[in-house]
Amino acid sequence: MANRTSYLNAVELRDGQVLLFNRPNAKKNVWHMRLYVRGMEDVSGEKVKYYTRSTGELNIEEAKRVALDTHDKIRLKVRNEEPVYDATFSEGWIKWWEKKKKPALNRALDFKQRKEPLRESGSSRVVWYIRFYERYWEPYFGAMPLTKINGTTMEDYLEWRDTYWERASKKERDKHPNHSLRPSKKTLQMERSALREFFGWACNTARLMRVVPDYDIDSRRGEDYDNRRPSFDKRDWQRLDRYMREVWVKGKAKGDNIEQGRLHKGHLFQREMVRRYCQFLTATGMRPTEPLYLKHRHIEIKELQNGKKVLEIKLTTGKTGAREIVSLPVAVGYYEAIKEATGKVNPEDWVFCDKEGKRSKGYYRTLEKLLKDTGLRVCPNTGKNRTAYSFRHYYAEQRLTEAGANLATTADLRANMGTSIQQIERHYIRKKIYNKENLVSYREKESNKGK
Length: 451
Prior knowledge:
The chain has 15 helices and 7 strands. The protein is α+β, with helices and mostly antiparallel strands.
């Protein structure tokens, strides 16, 4: 081994192209990696000599695995002429805007000015891009790695964008008095075209991402469009829940073979957490990422006047800010099962975590495979793929089915789900009007039972 005096506990692999080491004076002996691949470049096309990152591992064998896997991925990126570091939306956008789009718009403006009197259309187009980037795209997408932006991300953005001015402060509304409460279809089409052009460049020219994400405007706009979102009917949800309980978490699914080592306790633990995650969404109506940021101090079990117990959840962060959520009674059992599975019950422990207590980053791939294996990936009513959001939609639809589309129920849903009544009407009530025979408060109806 070469003498590495500047690295603590240095370990070389692949003739020195992979170097593992500890940092001096670190509180924990986490292994770091320094990787070399000839021809590495960053987002701007500048040469990168070494790729240095933490492996996140204390065990040397696990650190070796992480380092070698990462080295293989970097070699593939270099072969495909991709930057070695994943670019964020903002990094990619700035490169595209300065090197391609802005010069192209200016050239078009110069051409028009030579052929006819000075017009403002070219310069106003530049201003339009800048304003929309600063007001909508950078705040929403800015820090996201381009490789993580997909169709679901774009659908989430469309919902966020659709209600932007409904949630805006009075100060911001007064600053932009000409704003429209809801963007027109034409405005959304212009935004979609601009984003698709950028994503296309990022995918095909700069190789910053692998696919061009998109979203469906028509599914959300106007009375002539089907606003339904991919959800479950009650029978499908019960079938999925039963399959997870009786087959999946017990290692009895097709292809499982514990004796041959294809499945171990770690896999079964992951499946149990996915099961509880799905149940939790159907009982709270939370957005898929929101439960992942819950600690036990955010949840309290409360007893209602009717004797039923519910979870009172204080969400400190979310797409629409902090809010308080009151679960369905069934969520109490789900929550207790989560604590039993993880063994992490201290106030500062994460609710959804791995066996070591580290916060889960999501179960998206596992969930996608589960839905495919059970034949429930595609919603027959909409033709769209079901995702983690489908459990949130199921929650809303079941609440409306059981309680009725009355003012009290939609107000409860609005508070619980962190959305607007307009969104609930548009996507869940379907007819977009309240049932005149059911305007009596659901709570009043419940309190009158048995009198």
